[in-house]
Specification:
This protein has about 150 residues and is mainly beta. The protein is built from one helix and nine strands.
Length: about 150
């Protein structure tokens, strides 16, 4: 992988790991598992794919609560990475999802800071799947240094 695409895949990994899961009692929350499957990458196009599957045992959430959120924006990037094919299931089957920017409707100002809610209560093992069609997004300002410069590891 080229340095630029390596940074993009690294950002996707960080986005997946930094996922926030809203659980009523954080002290008693069971551990979750995250499977990150990188797909083919194109060095010439600076694109790649990542599929993520998260499994959270003994999950409980009332209808309308945020089930999970994901930030796909890197500071200084021209725009957020895309996330698509977001699905969830629990003990009752498919969970209907609605994407929202945290505490407001999704619009051009969300900058990749999304949360998903459901119109019904969710319980049991929650499995969340999503796809990140990655691209090397240009930096407008700030952000991490490019590969090969001090501070990059």
């Amino acid at each position: 992988m080229t340095g630029g695409l390596t940074a993009v895949v690294g950002a996707a990994f960080a986005a997946a790991v930094c996922l926030f899961v809203d659980v009523a009692d954080a002290k008693a929350a069971p551990l979750m598992t995250v499977l990150i499957k990188p797909g083919p990458a194109s060095a010439s196009a600076n694109t790649g794919d990542v599929d993520v599957v998260m499994t959270i045992p003994a999950f409980q959430a009332a209808a309308g609560r945020t089930l999970f959120s994901l930030s796909t924006n890197m500071p200084g990037a021209a725009y957020a990475q895309t996330v698509d094919h977001v699905t969830a299931s629990d003990a009752l089957g498919a969970v209907p999802l609605t994407a929202r920017a945290r505490d407001r409707a999704v619009n051009a100002e969300t900058k990749g800071d999304l949360g998903w809610t459901s119109s019904r209560a969710v319980s049991g093992v929650l499995t969340v799947r999503y796809h990140l069609p990655l691209e090397n997004i240009p930096m407008l300002s700030g952000g991490p240094p490019p590969p090969g410069r001090p501070g990059w590891s």
